[in-house]
Specification:
The complex is a heterodimer of chains A (674) and B (158). Chain A has 674 residues and is of the alpha/beta class. Chain A contains 18 helices and 34 strands. In chain B, strand 3, helix 3 and strand 4 form a beta-alpha-beta unit. Classes of the chains: A alpha/beta (674), B alpha/beta (158). The structure holds FE2/S2 (inorganic) cluster.
Chain lengths: 674, 158
C-alpha cells in the first residue's frame, strides 16, 4: 500500500472524450483498482480545464490532503500548464501533477468504445504509477538577455527592429546584402494606394540606420547560433567591404571613379549596371560602398586602385587588406525575417522568358517603371526607346500550378493590377491581364480592381498556354503572341502584344532549409518557416525564443508583413519585460558515489555540459548547460546519472502501469511469456 | 483468451518535440489507428535506455515502437543518432534472445507527420499480429537452445 494520496481526474472534454471513452467507468475503476498505488479520489467532470474543474482539483488537494494529481484529458502540450497552476494555487508543488492524453491518443484516434476505455485505464495506471516517483521541483530561473537579433532587414525586419529599439532595448540587425531595404526598396509603387515605395520605406531605413539602440550589420551573415532562449550566443560573419566604415563619409567619389561597369543582376534585376565598387542604390543604408572582388580590376589583376587614389578621406577609406570579421553577440531572442526569392520564370519555357527579349519578370518591370531605375521610369522595350502599344500581364506564374507551387502567392493579382494601371498611365498601351481567379481580398483592394477595370484594361480568364514570336496570322508579325483559352467564351485566343510581364510566384529562400536548421526551427513541405500555431500563434515557432515575420513564413503583402514584424517585436518585448525565464527543471545530474569514472557519458553531450574531474575520476554535469535530453542518463552503465522528471524509476513505473492490461482487458501477467 | 483473436500489445516511446506532437496531430486530424499501441513520452529518443525496451517486453508487451525526430532535426541536435546506434545494437541482442527483429521498430516522425505515424502503427500492429505473442523461450528452444543467427548487415527501417 502506497503512502501517497493521489487524485485522478478524468475529463469528458464535452463529448470529445466521453463519446468514445466511458469516463464514468474509468473514474470508478481507478478509485477501486488503483487504491494500492495510492489513489484516494477519482472523479470525472465535463470540462476539467474550466475554472470549476480546476477548483474541483484544488478543493480535493486541500480537503483530502492529496499529494499527487493525475489528469486524464487532452495533450499536456495544451493544458499541462493549466493543471500545474491549479496545483500550485492549492499549495501543491506543480511538478507533482501528471497528465495523460486520453483525447489525442485515445478518443480521437480510436472508434471501438470498449477497447478505447481499456486503453484509457491502462494509460491512467501508467500515469499513477509514474506520479508516485515525481519529486517537488522548482522551475529553473534564467535571466533574459535584453538584446535581440533580427535577421533580414527588409521591411519586416526593419519594422521589428524599430519597434524593439524604440522601446529602449538593443537590437542587432543583420542583413546579407550591402544595404538594408529588401525587396521593397526595388519596387516603384505600392498597391492599392500607389504611394511610392521608396518614399515610405527610406525614412524607416534611415531611422534603423541611425537608431542609437540598433547595431546595423549589413553585408553580414549569421554563421552559428548557440545557447537557448534568453541566452543565445550568435556568431556573425561581417564580410569584408574593403571600405573602412570608421572613416568613409559615403561621398561616392570612389564609385564615380571606378572604371568597371558590372551588369547588376541583383538590385536592378539585370536591367542596369553598377560599378565594381558600389552601393545598390543611392539611398542605401548604410551609405558605405562595397568592393565586388570578382569584378574589381585590382583584385583580378593587381592594378588600378582608382578608388583608393581618388578617395578624399584622411586616412584613406579604401582598404584592400580588410578581412572578414567574426563577431559574437549575446542575445535573448531572435526574429527571422529572411524574406523570399522570386520564382525563376525560365522554369516555364513556354512563357519564353530569357528567350524572347520583351518578356519581363515582375521585378524587372518594377525597375523599369521606377523613376530611379535604369530607364528613369520610362516603360520601353529592351531596345530602350520603343514604347509598347500592347502589353500582356500573366498572373500566377509558378503559383497555383501543380508543376511548380500549389500555393497562391497572395500578392500577384494586386501586383498585376498595379502593373496594368502603371502601363496605361505611362504608355497608354492596350493592357491584357491573363488570370485564373481574381483575388483582391483586403482593405481597398477590390476598389482598386474596379478602378483598373474602368480604365479599360482587358481581363482574359484562362491560364496562358504559350508566349511565342512565331507569327501565324496577319497582324502577328514582329509581335509576341499570347495563346490562351478564354474560359468565358470557351475559345482559344491569340493576342499579339509588344511586351509580356510575368507575375512570378514568391518562393522560400533557396537556403531556407539551411537557415531553419541553423536556428533550430522547421520548414513546411513547401519550404516556408512553420509558425507555432497557424491561427493563434503565428509569429512564434516551436523553438522558444525564435520568432518569424514576413514572407519567410509564407507569401504576404506589405501591410501584413509590417503587422507581423510588429507582432514579433511585441512578443519579444513581452519576453524581455519578464526579465527572467522559467525553464522546465528537466536536468541530468551525477550521483558522484556511484560514478565509476568510465567516461562513457562524456561524449554524449552536444552542449558540453558534461565535465570530467581527472583528479577525483568522476563526471559532473553543469546544470546551466544541460538541456535535459537524457541521453547521458540512458548511457550510464552504473545508473549513476539521473534525470529529473524522466528518472528511470518514473519511466519504468509508467511502463509497468501501461502494461496492467492486455488490449482486450486481460491482465498483463497472463501475457507474460512462459 | 484462446477464442479471442490475438491482439498484440505495443508500447511506444515518443520524443517530446517531434513524434509526441505527431501523435497529437494524428488526434487533431482524427486519423484512426488501432488501440493496441500505448505511447509514453520521453524528452528525446536519446533518453531511451535499452532497459526500457526489455522492461516492456518482459512485462507483457509484444512489441516496442521507438520514435524520434528525423535525423538532423533532433531538438538536442544529434541525440537521435545515438538512439539509432543503440537501437541497432539492441535489436541484434534481442535476436539472440529469440525476439524477432520486427517486434522492435524505430521510426522517425516529424511534428507534421501525424498521418504517417498512424500508418506506421497500423503496419506494425499487423506485422506483430501475424507473428503471434512474444514467446522468446519457445523461439530459442525451437532453435535447439541456440540463439537465432546474427542479423544480416543492418538496414535502417526508419
Ligand atoms: S528531441 Fe526528438 S529525437 Fe531528440
Amino acid at each position: 500500500m502506497s503512502e501517497e494520496r493521489i487524485g485522478v481526474y478524468v475529463c469528458h472534454c464535452g463529448s470529445n472524450i466521453a463519446s468514445v471513452v466511458d469516463v464514468e467507468d474509468v473514474a470508478v475503476w481507478a478509485k477501486d483498482n488503483l487504491a494500492d498505488q495510492g489513489v484516494v479520489v477519482a472523479r470525472d467532470y465535463k470540462f476539467m480545464c474550466s475554472s470549476l474543474g480546476q477548483e474541483l482539483i484544488q478543493d480535493d488537494i486541500k480537503e483530502q490532503g492529496l499529494d499527487r494529481v493525475v489528469v486524464a484529458a487532452c495533450s499536456p502540450h495544451l493544458h499541462e500548464r493549466t493543471f500545474r497552476n491549479a496545483c500550485d494555487r492549492a499549495g501543491l508543488n506543480p511538478f507533482l501533477c501528471e497528465m495523460v492524453s486520453v483525447r489525442e491518443q485515445v478518443s480521437w484516434v480510436h472508434t471501438d468504445k470498449e477497447l478505447a476505455t481499456q486503453k484509457a485505464k491502462a494509460m491512467i495506471a501508467g500515469g499513477v504509477e509514474r506520479v508516485v516517483y515525481h519529486e517537488p521541483l522548482e522551475p529553473l530561473r534564467v535571466p533574459i538577455n535584453e538584446a535581440t537579433l533580427v535577421v533580414g532587414a527588409g521591411i519586416a525586419g526593419i519594422q521589428a527592429a524599430l519597434e524593439i529599439a524604440d522601446s529602449g532595448f538593443p537590437v542587432y540587425l543583420v542583413e546579407r546584402e550591402p544595404s538594408i531595404g529588401g525587396h521593397m526598396a526595388q519596387f516603384d509603387k505600392t498597391f492599392p494606394t500607389l504611394d511610392c515605395s521608396a518614399c515610405i520605406l527610406t525614412p524607416k531605413m534611415v531611422d534603423a540606420g541611425q537608431h542609437p539602440n540598433i547595431t546595423l550589420l549589413s553585408w553580414s551573415e549569421v554563421e552559428r547560433v548557440d545557447g537557448y532562449v534568453g541566452n543565445f550566443t550568435v556568431t556573425i560573419r561581417k564580410k569584408a567591404r574593403y571600405v573602412n566604415e570608421d572613416v568613409c563619409t559615403g561621398c561616392g567619389i570612389c564609385i564615380e571613379k571606378c572604371p568597371v561597369n558590372v551588369l547588376d543582376t541583383n538590385f536592378e534585376a539585370g536591367l542596369g549596371y553598377r560599378k565594381a565598387v558600389y552601393r545598390p542604390f543611392p539611398q542605401a543604408v548604410p551609405k558605405y560602398p562595397v568592393i565586388d572582388t570578382e569584378n574589381c580590376t585590382y583584385f583580378k589583376r593587381g592594378k588600378c586602385k582608382a578608388c583608393q587614389i581618388f578617395c578624399p578621406t584622411q586616412p584613406n577609406s579604401i582598404d584592400f587588406e580588410q578581412q572578414d570579421q567574426l563577431l559574437q553577440v549575446p542575445v535573448g531572442n531572435i526574429i527571422l525575417a529572411t524574406g523570399y526569392d522570386l520564382f525563376d520564370a525560365r522554369r516555364i519555357p513556354q512563357y519564353g522568358y530569357g528567350r524572347l527579349a520583351n518578356v519581363y519578370t515582375s521585378l524587372e518591370f518594377e525597375r523599369l517603371c521606377n523613376a530611379a531605375g535604369p530607364t528613369n521610369g520610362d516603360v520601353v522595350l529592351r531596345d530602350g526607346v520603343t514604347k509598347p502599344e500592347a502589353v500582356g500581364i500573366i498572373h500566377c506564374v509558378g503559383s497555383r500550378d501543380r508543376n511548380y507551387n500549389n500555393y497562391c502567392s497572395v500578392i500577384c493579382c494586386m501586383q498585376s493590377l498595379k502593373f496594368a494601371h502603371l502601363v496605361k498611365e505611362r504608355t497608354g498601351a492596350e493592357v491584357y491581364n491573363f488570370y485564373i481567379d481574381m483575388r483582391t481580398a483586403y482593405k481597398d483592394y477590390d476598389e482598386f480592381y474596379q478602378k483598373v477595370l474602368e480604365e479599360g484594361t482587358h481581363f482574359v480568364r484562362g491560364r496562358v498556354a504559350e508566349v511565342t514570336d512565331a507569327a501565324r496570322q496577319p497582324g502577328e508579325d514582329g509581335k509576341i503572341i499570347v495563346q490562351v483559352e478564354d474560359t468565358f467564351i470557351g475559345k482559344q485566343r491569340r493576342i499579339p502584344v509588344d511586351m509580356v510581364i510575368l507575375s512570378s510566384a514568391l518562393e522560400p529562400r533557396a537556403d531556407s532549409d539551411e537557415v531553419a536548421h541553423k536556428f533550430g526551427i522547421a520548414c513546411s513541405a513547401n519550404g516556408w518557416f512553420i509558425e507555432k500555431h497557424p491561427k493563434l500563434d503565428p509569429v512564434a515557432t516551436m523553438t522558444e525564443g525564435i520568432y518569424i515575420a514576413g514572407c519567410a513564413q509564407g507569401p504576404k503583402d506589405i501591410p501584413s508583413t509590417v503587422a507581423q514584424g510588429a507582432a514579433a517585436a511585441a512578443r519579444v518585448l513581452g519576453r524581455i519585460q519578464q526579465k527572467e525565464l522559467a525553464l522546465e527543471p528537466i536536468r541530468a545530474s551525477v550521483i558522484a558515489e556511484r560514478c565509476s569514472g568510465c567516461r562513457i557519458c562524456n561524449n554524449m553531450c552536444p552542449f558540453n555540459a558534461i565535465l570530467f574531474h581527472e583528479d577525483r575520476m568522476v563526471t559532473e554535469i553543469n546544470p546551466a548547460l544541460c538541456q535535459g535530453c537524457g541521453t547521458c542518463v540512458a548511457a550510464c552503465p552504473s545508473g549513476a546519472i539521473t534525470g529529473t522528471q524522466f528518472s528511470n524509476e518514473q519511466v519504468l513505473a509508467q511502463i509497468e502501469g501501461l502494461l496492467m492490461f492486455g488490449v482486450n482487458g486481460n491482465l498483463a501477467n497472463e501475457l507474460v511469456p512462459a | 483468451m484462446a477464442d479471442k483473436q490475438f491482439e498484440p500489445l505495443i508500447i511506444g516511446f515518443t520524443c517530446n518535440w517531434c513524434s509526441y506532437r505527431a501523435a497529437d496531430l494524428a488526434g487533431m486530424s482524427r486519423v484512426k489507428y488501432p488501440p493496441n499501441v500505448r505511447l509514453m513520452r520521453l524528452m528525446c529518443s536519446g533518453r531511451l535506455d535499452p532497459e526500457f525496451v526489455l522492461k516492456a517486453l518482459r512485462g507483457g508487451a509484444d512489441g516496442v515502437l521507438i520514435t524520434g525526430c528525423h535525423p538532423g532535426e533532433c531538438h538536442y541536435l544529434e541525440q537521435n543518432y545515438k538512439a539509432l546506434r543503440r537501437f541497432l545494437l539492441l535489436r541484434r541482442t534481442l535476436k539472440q534472445f529469440g525476439v524477432e527483429p520486427q517486434r522492435v521498430r524505430l521510426i522517425w516522425a516529424s511534428a507534421a507527420e501525424g498521418a504517417r505515424l498512424a500508418q506506421e502503427i497500423n503496419k506494425m500492429v499487423e506485422e506483430i499480429r501475424a507473428l503471434g505473442p512474444l514467446t522468446w523461450r519457445d523461439v530459442i528452444s525451437a532453435n535447439g537452445d541456440r540463439p537465432l543467427e546474427a542479423l544480416p548487415a543492418e538496414e535502417v527501417t526508419a
